[in-house]
UniProtKB/TrEMBL annotation:
Keywords annotated in UniProt: Methyltransferase, Transferase
A single GO molecular function term of this UniProt record: 5-methyltetrahydropteroyltriglutamate-homocysteine S-methyltransferase activity
Gene3D superfamilies documented for this protein: 3.20.20.210
Protein name stated in the entry: 5-methyltetrahydropteroyltriglutamate--homocysteine S-methyltransferase
GO biological-process terms attached to the record: methionine biosynthetic process; methylation
Superkingdom per UniProt: Bacteria
Length: 370
């Protein structure tokens, strides 16, 4: 069997996926919201900006190319709202991050959850794949199925509990994964903030306040991931990005991976893990010792996407060496800890600073993995 290390990706210098929305994108989306331009006109502008973005990624030295999530407002809601049985709505409050509150938006389940064969992300990927060409790899990012379980409320009698929803979520994602594969996708990333709830006492208390059993929910999250990807084609690489929140350069939660090390590193059947390690909130590398496969790649998010200052190259190389005490170099990669714009607002950096960060990752990776 071909191992993840031998496959095309993750690349030694990789990235999570989202990029800052350009001024032209922001203006077009504002015009569309006001009814000043049509959907076709807005999409034509998005197409043009994505083509430019693809070329910038190539010029920066990246081999995995995304559309930057330029068509999305949110990293997760845009995908989930286009599943049958899921709708967006405006709650009373946004989500409270450290020092900031997000804009008001959420989702709830209003009917039987199914994958929509006309899901707009499929057309988005086909466009990206054509633009990227054969010398690079088009990477598709979507929210993990766990995000529907932990973020959506119920506004239907079809499901009474999270457990009731699990089989349909798994089926929907199995169909989604096959649909992306049929569209030409060979590198798919699941973005997941649900694991952050298990990493701190505050997160555990929050789950319990909602009437959830943390240990039971952890096992459900593991099952949903593994069963959703169980039937994937052998030449489709699936990674997961585990995040603690990223909204306008603010974070949502803290905590090391220790509390769920065995589940994440020895229990998930993904091919690679993109992990935050850009500051003390993420703890040390000791949890990597739980990795029990030589075909699992761990992408170290040691370069922050939140702030413009470039990390000292020697410090990053030293931290990679520290991680190599627990996992061989050949199973390690490097990336920013998160995307640059998990929502359309983007982090508090400039486009030039964003590309400086990307080139920084690529340059360090070239030095380390010669």
């Amino acid at each position: 069997m071909t191992t993840a290390v031998e496959r095309i990706a993750p690349f030694k210098g990789d990235h999570v996926g989202s990029f800052l929305r350009t001024d032209r994108i922001k203006h077009a989306r504002s015009q569309y919201a006001k009814g000043e331009i049509s959907e076709k006109q807005r999409r034509a502008i998005e197409d043009a900006e994505i083509i430019k973005l693809v070329e910038k990624q190539k010029a920066a030295g990246l081999m995995a190319i995304t559309d930057g999530e330029l068509r999305r407002s949110w990293w997760h809601f845009d995908f989930l709202e286009n599943l049958s049985g899921v709708e967006g709505f405006e709650p009373n409050n946004g989500l409270k991050f450290a020092g900031i509150e997000t804009k008001k938006h959420s989702i709830h389940v209003t009917g039987k959850v199914e994958f929509n064969k006309e899901h707009p992300f499929l057309a988005d990927f086909k466009f990206l794949n054509e633009v990227v060409g054969n010398r690079h790899v088009a990477k598709q990012t979507i929210p993990s199925p766990n995000m529907l379980l932990v973020r959506a409320g119920f506004d239907t009698d079809i499901y009474q509990t999270i457990e009731d929803l699990v089989p349909d979520v798994i089926m929907a994602y199995q169909q989604a994964i096959q649909a992306f594969y049929d569209a030409g996708c060979r590198y798919l990333q699941l973005d997941d903030t649900s694991w952050a709830s298990f990493l701190s006492e505050e997160g555990i208390s929050s789950l319990q306040a909602k009437g959830m059993n943390p240990e039971k929910l952890r096992d459900i999250c593991k099952r949903v991931i593994n069963e959703s990807i169980a039937e994937r084609p052998k030449d489709l690489l699936i990674t997961m990005h585990i995040c603690r929140g990223n909204y306008r350069s603010h974070y949502f939660s803290t905590g090391s991976y220790d509390a769920v090390s065995e589940t994440i590193f020895a229990g998930l059947n993904v091919d690679g893990l993109f992990l935050e390690f850009d500051d003390e909130r993420s703890g040390g590398f000791e949890p990597l010792s739980y990795v029990n496969r030589d075909d699992l790649c761990v992408v170290l998010g040691l370069v922050t996407s939140k702030f413009p200052e470039l990390e000292d190259k020697d410090v990053i190389k030293k931290r990679i060496a520290e991680a190599a005490n627990y996992l061989p170099y050949e199973q390690l990669c490097l990336s920013p800890q998160c995307g640059f714009a998990s929502t359309e607002e983007g982090n508090l950096i400039t486009e030039e600073e964003q590309w400086n960060k990307v080139r920084h990752v690529v340059d360090i990776a070239k030095d380390v993995w010669k």
